[in-house]
Design brief:
Elements: H1 33-38, E1 39-48, E2 54-62, E3 68-78, E4 83-84, E5 92-96, E6 101-107, E7 113-122
Antiparallel strand pairs: 1-2, 2-6, 3-4, 3-5, 3-7
């Protein structure tokens, strides 16, 4: 017997969460409306590592039934709003399955980083 159809994933998680997110109010700048209609930012969470570095987690959700491919990169800024040079700021390829949510994250390259910006680019 041959089975065909969509692949689905069932998820189970703790209803009484021990870890509470520190959500960030974000300013969204949409430069690619096409990608934004398909993959949306659900929320942004930040915390400090034990070593004092800022770490950021972004939750994404695919609103389509198909895999969506995109590139992203984080830019980091110091307390004065000046961009911090970072050799790791290259575009990172990523994909998200249809109707799924996913987290992407990054850790600041040094202790001077106090703010960030994340950019998403539709992959061909």
């Amino acid at each position: 017997m041959l089975l065909a159809g969509c692949t689905t994933v069932n998820s189970v998680e703790n209803a009484q969460k021990d870890g509470q997110r520190k959500m960030i109010s974000d300013q969204r700048v949409i430069t690619d409306a096409s990608l934004n209609r398909r993959v949306a930012i659900v929320g942004i969470n930040s915390a400090m590592t034990p070593g004092g570095l800022l770490k950021v987690q972004v939750e994404l959700e695919n609103h389509t039934r198909s895999i969506q491919r995109f590139l992203y990169h984080f830019e980091w800024f110091d307390a004065n709003g000046m961009q911090v040079n970072n050799i790791l700021s290259a575009n990172v390829p990523e994909q998200i399955e249809g109707k799924e949510s996913k987290f992407i994250y990054s850790v600041a390259p040094n202790l001077n980083c106090r703010d960030f910006r994340v950019k998403f680019i539709e992959a061909d």
